[in-house]
Amino acid sequence: MSEEVVFDTEGVRKNFMFLNRKAPYGTIYALEILEMILISAAFEQNTTVAFMDDGVYQIKKGQNTKALGMKNFSPMYGVVEMEKEDAEEDEDVEMVWRIVVEQESMEARGLSPEDLVLDVEVLPAAEFGALMAQQDVILGG
Amino acid sequence: MAYEVEGKTIEHDEEGYITNISEWTEPLAGIIAKDEGIDMTDEHWEVVNFLRDYYNEYQIAPAVRVLVKAIKKKFGAEKGNNKYLYELFPYGPAKQACKIAGLPKPTGCV
Questions:
Q1: B2-35: what fold?
Q2: Highest mean pLDDT (candidates A28-42, A47-61, B62-76)
Q3: Is the pLDDT assigned to residue B110 strictly greater than 50?
Q4: What is the rounded distance in angstroms from the CA atom of residue A112 to the CA atom of residue A59?
Q5: B98 tagged catalytic
Q6: Distance of CA B26 to the CA centre of its chain
Q7: β-strands A46-51, A15-20: how paired?
Q8: CATH code for the domain in which residue A125 is found
Q9: Is A49 within a domain?
Q10: What is the complex's ipTM, to 2 decimals?
Q11: What span, in angstroms and rounded, lies between the C-alpha atoms of A75 and A63?
C-alpha cells in the first residue's frame, strides 16, 4: 500500500542575497562574490545583489587598477545587469533580480547613483534591513 | 610552449590558451583551430567574434548558458542552442571557442 513518490521537478526558488561590504581590491571577497553571483545565475533563484559600507566602491565608475597590478573587474558587473534584464524579459520564469545600494553607505562616501557602473535601487538603512530580513540565504563578505 | 605565426612566437599555457591576450591575430586563430581539429567557417567566426566582443565589454568570457542565450538573441533560435554550438565546437563551445578567440579559459564551464 505504498504511495507513488512524486518528485517536484519545478525545483525550489529561494531568496538569495549577495551582500558586498568590502572594497574591490585588497581582498578577494569582491571578486569571489561576483563570480558566485554569475555561477549561481544558472540556478534561477530570486537574487538580490547588495552593496553597503566600502562595498559601494566595487561599482564606482572610472576604476584604474594599473598601479595595483590587478585587473579592473568592474566591467564584469555588466553581466549582473544583463542577468537582471534576462530575468525580467523571461516570461516562463517568475524570478526576481534586484540590485540595491544602502543609501547611508553611498552618501557617506560622497557618491550618488550617477557615480556607479550599475543602475541601482538606493535604499535607506531601514528598508535595506527589511529586505535582508526577507531573504532565505545571505552570502556576504 | 608557443605557437609560431608569421615569424612570431606566441606563448601559451599547457592547455593551449595564449598567455597574453593582446597578441591574438586572425591567422593565430586559424592555427589554434587547426590544433583543435576545427576548420574555421563563417559560422565559427560568428561565435569567435562574438566572444571577443563580449570579453572586450565585460572583461570575462561568458558561461555557456549565457553564450547560448546571447547567440540566440543575436543570430536567432536556429543558432542559439546547445546542439548547434556543439556541432561547431565538439569539445565544448565556450572552452574551444575561447581558446581560438585568444581568451582565458572560462571558469567552471564546458
A1: Dissimilatory Siroheme-sulfite Reductase; Chain: A; domain 1 (3.30.1420)
A2: A47-61
A3: no
A4: 11
A5: no
A6: 12
A7: parallel
A8: 3.40.1260.10
A9: yes
A10: 0.76
A11: 10
pLDDT tens sequence across A75-96:
999 999 999 998 888 887 788 9
Q: How many structural domains are present in chain A?
A: 1
The CATH superfamily holding the domain B42-100 is: DsrC protein, C-terminal domain (1.10.10.370)
In sequence order, the β-bridge partners of residue B10 are B3
The mean per-residue pLDDT over the stretch B29-56 comes to: 94
Which range of residues forms the domain containing residue A29? Answer: 17-140
- Residue B102, φ and ψ in degrees, nearest 5: 80, 20
Nearest by CB: B58 against A41, A42, A79:
A79
Per-residue confidence at A1, pLDDT binned at 50, 70, 90?
low
Q: Which of A42, A76, A78 has its CB closest to that of B63? A: A42
The H or E element containing residue B95 is helix B93-100
Shortest distance between the Cα of A78 and any Cα of chain B, in A, equals 6
Contact B60 A72 (CB under 8 A): no
Query: Which residues belong to CATH 1.10.10.370 in chain B?
Result: 42-100
**Cβ atoms A51, A105 nearer than 8 A:** yes
Distance from CA of A7 to the nearest CA of B (A): 25
Q: Do B57 and A78 count as a contact with CB atoms less than 8 A apart?
A: yes
Q: What is the pLDDT of residues A29-43, one digit of tens each?
A: 999 999 999 988 888
Q: Which residue has the higher pLDDT, A102 or A71?
A: A102
pLDDT at res. A7? 61
Q: Establish if A42 belongs to a structural domain.
A: yes
| pTM of the predicted protein model | 0.84
